[in-house]
Each structure stands twice: as structure tokens, then as C-alpha cells.
Amino acid sequence: MSKSRLIVLISGSGSNLQAIIDHIDAGEINANILSVISNKANAYGLERAKAAGIATAIVDHTQYDSRELFDQSLAEIIDQSSPDIIILAGFMRILTETFVMRYVGKLINIHPSLLPLYRGLHTHKRALQDKTTQHGASVHFVTPELDAGAVIVQGVVSIKNNDNEETLAARVHQIEHIIYPQAVKLLTENKVELKADHVYINNQLLQQPKQYYLKK
Ligand code: GRF
After folding, report:
1. Of 153, 155, 166, 176, which sits most exposed with the smallest number of CB within 10 A?
2. Which domain-ending residue is among 103, 130, 158?
3. What residue numbers bound the domain in which 44 lies?
């Protein structure tokens, strides 16, 4: 099978990007990352991309008068590579409906909570405040409503008595680095599809996303 063409959008550290690069390098994902695009010039993920020999681009949102214009520029750059899959990996911008619908079905995101719990920001803090026992991350298709798209796979971590935001975030990151490559692999193998807002795996409606547990 030919290699899938991936584009990764980041805003920060890019540890999820790194996990995907590592799985490609290990031969576990049959894909090429065509470019890594950041809305922030100082995102450390850009260094990770360069170290892996991947092309980078910066589309600085502060240079645009509106979300629409920013998204238009982003789409122009993305379309130059005609990617199969667009991966949001810590990309901290809300995307317009026009942008999302242009790529719907091939646009995925990782969100640091067990969706549908805790959409939006500060998920670790909110989980701790609620004294829940479990937290985690979800890989989902991106649809116009924020963090509301159908979930493909989840990673679960137990909350410990002495956890704070940092310790919890660190364990969520560990499970993210396991589940995001898994989800990308499924997509590159054409095993997963979004139809009428539902996930199908091997043409079967996914009733419950598969959950991976962090064993620590
Ligand atoms: C992750 O926690 C992800 O869930 C969220 O942003 C963070 C990105 O981390 N969307 P990194 O840049 O991949 O290290």
C-alpha cells in the first residue's frame, strides 16, 4: 500500500508529533509527514520536525485580521501537499466551520480528557476539582462543534490522591503518546471512517471507543 500523506498542525512542544514520527521511523505507521505547520514561530515542535528532516511552515495567527483569513491561509498551505490526513497535535486555535468542513473525515485531534467530559481548556484542573477517579485523553474526528466530534480511541489514567495538575498532565501525555499513533495507524490503513458523525472501524459502527489504560 502506498504511504499516507500526513500534515501535522502544532502550537507547542510537539511531543505527540514526536510520538507519531517515532512510530513512522519504526515502520509501524506507513506514512510520510509532508509538513509540520505551527501558528507559533517558537513552537518547540518545529525543532522536532527539522531534526526529523520534515518541512515546516509558520502561519502566525496574529498577522491576520480574522479567523476566516487565518484559516484560508492555512488551507492554502495544506492544499499544496494534498494530504490524506490532517493531524491536530496541540494546535491551540479554534478552526472555522468552513475550514473544518473542507477536511471533515480526514481531520483529527487529540483532546486531554475522556470526551464527552471536559471539552475546552483546563481539563486536568477540572478533573481534579471534581475529584473524579479517572481521566485521560481522546482522539476524535474534528467537526464544527468544539471537541464534539466522534471519538476513535481513548486513553485512561487513574487519578492518584497526591496528583496535581502537572503530575496528572504528565501521565495523560504518556497515554496520549500511545493512543495517537494507534489512531493514526488505523486511519493510514483505511480502517476507520467518519460517516454521519459516527466512527466506523472496518465498516462496523463503533459503539464504544477502544480504551487503553496506563498501567502506572
Ligand atoms: C496535549 O495534551 C493534547 O491533548 C492537547 O495539547 C497537548 C499537546 O502536547 N491538545 P504536545 O505539544 O503534543 O506535547
Report:
1. 166
2. 103
3. 1-103
3-state helix, strand, coil in the chain (%, to 5): 35, 25, 40
Is 215 found in the same domain as 179?
A: yes
In short, whether 183's Cβ falls inside 6 Å of ligand 1 is no
Q: 135 CB less than 6 Å from ligand 1?
A: no
Domain count, the chain: 2
| 3-state DSSP assignment of residue 61 | helix
Distance 15 CA to ligand 1 centre (A): 7
**Same domain for 170 and 87:** no
How confident is residue 215, by pLDDT bands cut at 50, 70 and 90?
A: confident
Residue 1 pLDDT: 79
Check: CB of residue 105 under 8 Å from CB of residue 192: no
- Check whether 169 has a pLDDT greater than 80: yes
Contact present, 76 and 68 (Cβ < 8 Å): no
